[in-house]
Write a structure and sequence with these properties.
homodimer, 194 residues, mainly alpha, Tetracycline Repressor, domain 2, disordered C terminus, DNA-binding, HTH-type transcriptional regulator BetI (chains A, B), Tscrpt_rep_BetI (chains A, B), transcription regulation (chains A, B), HTH_TetR (chains A, B), transcription (chains A, B)
Chain lengths: 194, 194
DNA sequence: TTTTTTGTTGATTGACGAGTCAATAAACTT
DNA sequence: AAGTTTATTGACTCGTCAATCAACAAAAAA
């Protein structure tokens, strides 16, 4: 049976299964066995490829983050002007791929993980810095000073909207979330000192 | 040794120890033994008084929530006018008692808990509803329509600021957080249709 | 004073889960 | 054909932890 070149396939299956299982459990209280079973293999194989549970979680985190990052880059590539680019970032943050219960739950739990695992913290920091710098690039032309504070509050608002999603029932409401982000900016002094 | 009337004392000690331990671990991966040891008793006694780990967490959650609730009520009692009352809510949310690493970590983990435990979810929902209605009472006189959306985004922003605190290092910066909350409101159309 | 209630713990149980290992088998190399 | 690498798992080890229990101690009630 053993076909060669299984490693990437198995790893991907494990990473996806990890996200699903974290979503199901709503926490990191997920056994390697559960993950492996959902990914269609034995627990031993999961250990074989990743070496340990910690590494599996880390890989899952990287996956979510890089997926999000890629989507942002894609959206920015076709958006022209700061206003449009800003909105592109917003839309990606609440796109169907990212704003799903599973993924939101994963994010939340990654924040928890970041409190005790340095690698996880580093990854999250990278994401936060990237988001901040993306936002700043758009905000500076629109609101000269105050762009920094605005970027920070927008970041916090996005995270808060994610956080609150986990308590809601029913399908995620991206429209409402987007409206709040946009309203956060409207009526702010436009370009006070360019 | 056995003095009578220990129950409330023991319970309080356990609840406080729980919050400290959650803060230390940064997660709910905390054993009853750890909690009991920090509270100065045997694990068996913790089980005796609470019946199980789940109940200990729930009690800790109630403690944090009721402390916050009491502080809000106290601040509202001496604040006059919607503007002042609004700011009172903000200040309590980032007061020295509530905006501490331990407590912030506890909040975060309660959100996680809420995903898998119905009781925890109920408690958090109560808090959210209360916050929302407190905010609404202040916002309606100031911004007629749009008060609802504003209350929701303020709630999300508060949660987001808490969430982001767990990644920061150094002491919590309440001033900056407060500035963001206040800025979120400034320049919004005041009282468009009263 | 006996009995009951309340407080307290050491020792134990039973379950579960991460990680290891030896063994098997297919595919590639030489 | 013999040897090496890659894939795969069942069985096992070792540790941990929630929960239980029997036993002991002191206060209160009878």
């Amino acid at each position: 049976m053993p076909k060669l070149g299984m490693e990437p396939i198995r790893k991907e299956a494990l990473v996806k299964a990890t996200i699903v299982e974290i979503g199901r459990a709503g926490s990191l209280d997920v056994t390697v066995s559960q993950i492996a079973r959902r990914a269609g293999m034995s627990p031993a194989l999961a250990h074989h490829y990743f070496g340990g549970k910690e590494a599996i979680f880390l890989a899952a985190m990287r996956h979510v983050l890089s997926l999000y990052g890629a989507e942002v880059r894609g959206a920015l590539a076709v958006a022209e002007g700061p206003q449009a680019r800003l909105d592109a970032i917003f839309r990606v943050s609440f796109s169907a791929t990212n704003f799903r219960r599973e993924v939101v739950s994963a994010w939340l739990n990654f924040y928890v993980l970041a409190q005790s695992q340095a690698d996880a913290r580093r990854l999250l920091s990278v994401y936060q810095r990237r988001l901040r710098s993306n936002l700043l690039a758009c905000l500076r032309p629109l609101h000269g000073h105050g762009a920094e504070a605005l970027a920070d509050s927008l970041g916090a608002l996005i995270d808060g909207l994610y956080l609150r999603e986990v308590l809601k029932e029913g399908p995620p409401d991206a429209e409402t979330a987007l409206r709040m982000l946009r309203d956060h900016l409207t009526d702010k002094g436009k370009d006070p000192n360019p």
